[in-house]
Design brief:
The complex is a heterotrimer of chains A (about 325), B (about 300) and C (about 525).
Chain A lengths: L1 H7 L4 H20 L5 H26 L7 H16 L6 H24 L5 H20 L9 H8 L1 E2 L3 E2 H19 L1 H11 L1 H6 L4 H27 L10 H11 L11 H20 L6 H20 L3
Antiparallel strand pairs in A: 1-2
Helix pairs in contact in A: 2-13, 3-8, 3-11, 3-12, 3-13, 4-5, 4-6, 4-11, 4-12, 5-6, 5-11, 7-8, 7-11, 8-9, 9-11, 12-13, 12-14, 13-14
Chain B lengths: L4 H7 L2 H17 L6 H26 L7 H19 L3 H22 L4 H19 L9 H8 L7 H19 L1 H11 L1 H6 L4 H27 L8 H13 L11 H20 L4 H20 L7
Helix pairs in contact in B: 2-13, 3-8, 3-11, 3-12, 3-13, 4-5, 4-6, 4-11, 4-12, 5-6, 5-11, 8-9, 9-11, 12-13, 12-14
Chain C lengths: L12 E10 L2 E11 L4 E6 L5 H8 L7 E6 L2 E2 L5 H6 L2 E4 L11 H5 L14 H15 L14 H14 L4 E5 L7 H16 L3 E5 L3 H7 L2 E6 L2 E7 L5 H9 L3 H4 L12 E10 L2 E9 L3 E6 L5 H8 L7 E6 L2 E2 L5 H6 L2 E4 L3 H5 L6 H6 L2 H5 L7 H15 L15 H12 L6 E5 L7 H16 L3 E5 L3 H7 L2 E6 L2 E7 L5 H8 L13
Parallel strand pairs in C: 3-8, 3-9, 6-7, 7-8, 13-18, 13-19, 16-17, 17-18
Antiparallel strand pairs in C: 1-2, 1-4, 4-5, 9-10, 11-12, 11-14, 14-15, 19-20
The chains are: A mainly alpha (about 325), B mainly alpha (about 300), C alpha/beta (about 525).
């Protein structure tokens, strides 16, 4: 039993490629910063956790052969709502988290219904949701969001476990593990994987593909919300548009990690490497004092490069 | 003249035309000044950039592709104008349009060479173009020579450059996409790429031409926009991406390709401009407008896509 | 001056030692034949014999590895369909290339529209020209109709019209009659005779041996990429064709059918069951019986198969399995009731091609091994390994994507998945499409052994040899209704075609529809 489980988890070649690229980048960053240390890399990982978690959700959506363009907006929504519900008071923990996650759930359900029941192509449905959320945030805050995150809560991203492992990385690992077990070792996850690879074949085989698509959007929105919560803990306050770039970044991270737009592939370790790569590149751009605009160019170029590489390996 | 697919494609524009007329009638009855020449001239100058960008998006959709880089190209064009219009004068306009064409070439190359999904490739292009824009113009500003404004927008007459350009561009597009072999190839490819290829249409030529046309039209929209606001803005185009897809679909253009007429794009773009105008007249919070537009978009999708395209 | 005979007029087309391989899979092995102007050549062979590959090489859709072709004495090696068209070769593919959003006229003249001085398309002229062409050919189709509104038969006719409009020297027709009723098929054969009289050379592919015997001047039979027979009119019999196609006599390919099935109890019955896409239908199948369902293309086979597997459920009538009322609302309900259905297109409806073979195999078996929603990894592995051995799936690694398997092995994976639990009813829809001859026979014997254990089989197929060889009884579908039934002793291609062409008295032209 145990060896079988291990062979099931052997990394895909795409994951190994992403890990190799990540190692290379880490070395470059260490050299570029000279005094850099392992601590610096771990700190990068700490800050990459929100993106990493959002990218996991995006990877799941890509597995279903869809795209979620609302993850940035959903993370931003979580940020604004969490800060205003907390209002700096640690005793508001319960209601603040419940409200934030509840709204995340609602966003995911809305996406799922638009895509499955109303049959709107996923990227357009989620683009529209993103627009509605962005408008909603502006209406609610009037452009200047209020509230803050109490210091005791910020421990989830600022704290370290024994000075070695940041709490945020721990959360990221746990979430990844849960998703891996779900997709590869549960019946529902397996059905989702098959529905993602070929929805028609799945339906023909009695799999309720529609409900699984809704479920994937709910999971993605919850991941985006969790990412937004971690992001809030990092910044300690609410800001508008702070998570917008996560939409494209999460796609880039998943794609670097071997996700395919045709669906049927779920490589969480690859997505994690992808998220770290994107974060390290941003750090590197910062270290090399390149303008922040360069990150967008890198973002786009990475997607093109990763997909061109993946497509060139496929049979024509 | 109107035999075959042309007749059917004209029919797809009817809902947008009805919507436009209804919007106009409602607005006119609510505010008598609506039909005044000044207001109509103002509306036509607002319509011009929206109509140009929507036309580009519609053409890409005819081929069964989509262009999510329209908004970024618009922003880039405003940044280019804001930096080059003073030193270069009118030469800045062809430069701006040429850069738009280049953006289209990049997107098409990714789709054609690397076989990247059009949606994702245009999204990646959008990110890269946004980066370039922010390098040129990190924040709203720069200066567009007032001379441009004087030529394009100073007249308060209805029959002024904005309306004339709109009519000319759409007349040309109507003819090209109804009665030219290029248009026929694009519709055919969008209708069924495999069958069109078997019948001799070149996928490369179709993909490059639609994205270059879309790039040029988006750049034209950005150029016009920068002239109207007399400056550049690296984020001004963002909202246009969804707006153009929304308008094209409202105008009867099928997301699945092969169906629709450029006039539908015009009618729907005009209807959206009218809706925005009404929001402004009602003094609605601009943020509520963004929610409303998202909802209109969803409604348009639900209405026009009902029963079509189960997968995707 | 010597007599002008076949021997000394130059053939229009000469194909010499043509070979083609995809990777290590050799699909054409040294095929040679020639064809004169004004001749009809029939190309015959089972699915996967290499016919389509040969046609694609001739029409510029594929390159070849070895061999030579010449057209009218000049070397001929088209690298694109356009080049082949320019040389005077037109092909009508089995998969039609109708453009759904363009009109019939626009599709026929796509890329060669009449234009005015400004380079703009003359729509009036275009449609008038198409109307004349269609009238000349005897096809009653309006040139203004959109591609998406055409029936399968009409699409075929538009394809033929498009090919003929270019006045080719060589016209290739890939199964032109497969979707046509007997009357419409006869009119296409007449059209071929007329075109031949104008000096056009025609190659046509057909599965209907009677057509081949009736209209071919020359026949070429392919089997597994090799030419097993070339003969001229009168020098071959139906049996020659069958032996050349299949390589052995039919009795070896198909399992023995026991005689007593007609006395078995009824297993599955439809009583006036139908839905929006399918008029109410009555049929029943006994334990251990194979009921063949024949019909021309698009006569309700797809809606019937979809209804039986629960994808598009029946909305009226009564469904019984082993005498009990069955509610067949969804694929899950069908599976629970013991109905296994093998879809006709395994690539789009059967397999998740990018996923490993193991995952594709174990889909149903998983439910048995799982606990609290968690999979049992070892149960799955055991099942997959057992299935590989039992069905002789040829692969070294079950973790490979299923797309790496050959068509035949892919089909075995589909069968292995569906047969994980012993079904009561097995619905087969074109079960051997794109499957090699060896696997085909394995599948037939597998079906035979299932019926011995009491499984009832509904075999929906367009392959008449398969229907005749495997069924105990055949019913024919026409416009979604059962148009006739034939008992095993009365099976013949002619009898099936006759019933499949609809009510006999006034055979309707398909083009009238």
């Amino acid at each position: 039993m145990a060896p079988l489980v291990i062979t099931r988890l052997r990394p895909a070649s795409a994951t190994i490629r992403a890990a190799a690229l990540l190692a290379l980048l880490a070395v470059v960053l260490l050299v570029a910063t000279r005094g850099g240390s392992l601590q610096l890399l771990l700190d990068n990982a700490r800050q990459a956790a929100p993106l990493g978690i959002i990218a996991l959700g995006q990877a799941l959506i890509l597995m279903m052969g869809r795209l979620d363009l609302s993850v940035g907006a959903a993370a931003g929504l979580a940020n604004v709502v969490l800060a205003s519900a907390f209002a700096g008071d640690p005793t508001n923990l319960g209601p603040a988290l419940a409200l934030t996650l509840g709204l995340g759930l609602a966003v995911g359900l809305a996406n799922g219904v638009l895509v499955v029941v109303l049959r709107i192509p996923a990227f357009l449905a989620t683009l529209a949701t993103a627009m509605v959320i962005a408008g909603g945030i502006l209406v609610y805050t009037g452009g200047s969001p209020r509230g803050s995150i109490p210091a005791s809560f910020r421990v989830i991203t600022e704290g370290w476990i024994g000075d070695v492992l940041p709490w945020s990385v721990m959360i990221w690992l746990i979430v990844s593990l849960v998703l891996v077990v779900f997709v590869h070792f549960t019946l529902a996850g397996r059905q989702m994987l098959i529905a993602g690879a070929n929805a028609r074949a799945a339906r023909h085989s009695g799999i309720a593909a529609g409900s699984l698509v809704v479920a994937s959007f709910v999971i993605s929105a919850l991941m985006a919300t969790l990412g937004g919560i971690l992001l809030s803990a990092i910044t300690g306050m609410a800001s508008i548009g702070i998570a917008d770039s996560y939409t494209v970044d999460s796609i880039a991270a998943a794609v670097i990690g071997g996700a395919l737009f045709s669906g049927g592939v779920f490589l969480p370790a690859g997505a994690a490497c992808g998220a770290l790569i994107i974060f390290l590149i941003q750090s590197l751009l910062y270290v090399l004092s390149l303008p922040p605009a360069a990150r967008f160019i890198v973002q786009g170029a990475i997607i093109v490069f990763a997909l061109a590489l993946a497509n060139s390996k496929k049979e024509p | 003249m109107l035999e075959g697919s042309i007749r059917r494609n004209l029919l797809t524009t009817l809902p947008a035309l009805v919507l436009l007329v209804a919007m106009a009638a409602i607005t006119a009855s609510a505010s008598p000044s609506f039909l005044g020449e000044t207001n109509l001239a103002n509306l036509s100058s607002r319509l011009l950039p929206m109509a140009l960008a929507t036309l580009g998006q519609a053409i890409v959709l005819f081929a069964g592709c989509i262009d999510l880089s329209v908004g970024s190209i618009i922003s880039l064009a405003t940044a280019v104008m804001a930096t080059l219009s003073v030193p270069l004068g009118w030469t800045a306009v062809p430069v701006s349009l040429g850069i738009g064409a280049l953006c289209g070439v990049v997107t098409a190359a990714g789709i054609d060479r690397f076989r990247i999904n059009p949606l994702v490739m245009s999204l990646a292009s959008a990110a890269m173009i946004k980066g370039v824009t922010l390098l040129i113009l990190p924040s709203p500003g720069g200066e567009v020579d007032y001379g441009f404004y004087a030529v394009l927008f100073e007249s308060e007459r209805l029959l002024a450059p904005p309306l004339i350009i709109t009519i000319a561009v759409f007349a040309l597009a109507t003819v090209l996409f109804g009665w030219s072999r290029m248009g026929r190839n694009i519709y055919g490819y969008g209708s069924d790429p495999r069958a069109a290829f078997a019948r001799g249409a070149s996928p490369q030529r179709v993909v490059y031409s639609v994205y270059v046309i879309s790039g040029v039209l988006a750049a034209a929209a950005g150029t016009v926009l920068s002239i109207r606001i007399l400056s550049g803005d690296p984020l001004i185009g963002d909202a246009y991406t969804l707006d153009t897809v929304s308008a094209a679909i409202l105008g009867g253009v099928a997301l699945t390709g092969g169906r629709g007429n450029v006039l539908g794009a015009l009618f729907a773009a005009a209807a959206l401009v009218l809706i925005n105008n009404t929001f402004n007249l009602l003094e609605l919070d601009t943020n509520l407008q963004s929610i409303a537009k998202g909802l209109i978009f969803i409604l348009a999708l639900v209405f026009f896509m009902r029963g079509k395209a189960g997968e995707a | 001056m010597p007599d002008r005979t076949d021997a000394d007029t130059t053939p229009l087309l000469v194909v010499e030692a043509m070979s083609k391989a995809f990777g290590r899979n050799s699909v054409l092995k040294g095929v040679s034949f020639s064809l004169h102007a004004g001749e009809v050549l029939a190309l015959v062979g089972e699915n996967g014999a290499g016919k389509s590959t040969l046609m694609n090489i001739l029409s510029g859709g594929l390159g070849h590895d070895h061999g030579r072709m010449s057209l009218d004495g000049a070397a001929f090696a088209p690298s694109t369909p356009t080049e082949a068209a320019a040389a005077g070769v037109a092909i009508v593919h089995q998969e039609t290339t109708i453009l759904p959003d363009l009109s019939v006229a626009e599709t026929i003249y796509f890329g060669s529209e009449p234009r005015n001085a400004l380079g703009l398309i003359r729509q009036n002229e275009l449609h008038a020209r198409a109307a004349r062409l269609l009238a000349d050919l005897g096809f009653a189709i309006s040139p203004h109709r959109l591609g998406r509104d055409l029936s399968a038969a009409e699409r075929q006719m538009v394809e033929i019209a498009g090919a003929v409009s270019r006045s080719p020297r060589l016209l290739i027709l890939d199964e032109p009659t497969a979707s046509l009723s007997a009357a419409a098929a006869a009119s296409v054969l007449q059209l071929m005779a007329r075109l031949k009289a104008t000096g056009m050379a025609i190659i046509f592919i057909s599965h209907r041996l009677s057509e081949v015997i009736e209209s071919a001047d020359r026949v070429v039979v392919l089997k597994d990429g090799e030419m097993t027979l070339q003969a001229v009119r009168g020098a071959f019999t139906r049996d020659d064709l069958v032996v050349a196609m299949v390589g052995r006599t039919l009795s070896n390919i198909f399992p023995e059918r026991p005689a007593e099935v007609t006395t078995q109890p009824e297993r599955f019955a439809l009583k006036a069951a139908g839905n929006a896409g399918l008029p109410p239908i009555d049929l029943c199948v006994r334990r251990g019986e194979v009921l063949g369902i024949a019909g021309l293309e698009g006569q309700g086979q797809k809606p019937l198969a979809d209804a039986l597997c629960g994808l598009r459920p029946f909305t009226c009538g009564r469904i019984e399995i082993d005498g009990q009322l069955l509610r067949l609302r969804s694929p899950a309900a069908a599976i629970a009731a013991g109905i296994a259905s093998i879809p006709d297109d395994r690539r789009t409806e059967g397999l998740a091609l990018t996923l490993p073979i193991r995952l594709n195999l174990s889909l149903f078996a998983l439910r048995q091994g799982s606990r609290f929603g968690f999979l049992s990894v070892s149960h799955e592995a055991d099942f997959a390994e057992a299935a590989r051995r039992r069905y002789d799936i040829k692969t070294v690694d079950l973790e490979q994507p299923v797309s790496q398997l050959s068509g035949g092995n892919q089909q075995k994976v589909v069968f292995a998945r569906w047969l994980a639990g012993e079904p009561r009813l097995l619905v087969l829809y074109e079960p051997t499409k794109g499957v090699d001859v060896e696997t085909e026979s394995e599948i037939y014997h597998l079906i035979g052994s299932l019926t011995q254990r009491g499984v009832a089989v509904l075999l929906i197929s367009g392959d008449l040899l398969e229907l005749i060889g495997l069924s105990d009884r055949i019913v024919t579908l026409y416009e979604g209704r059962i148009s006739g039934e034939i008992a095993r002793h009365a099976f013949s291609e002619e009898a099936i075609m006759h019933l499949a062409s609809g009510p006999a008295p006034a055979p309707r032209e398909a083009v009238d529809a």
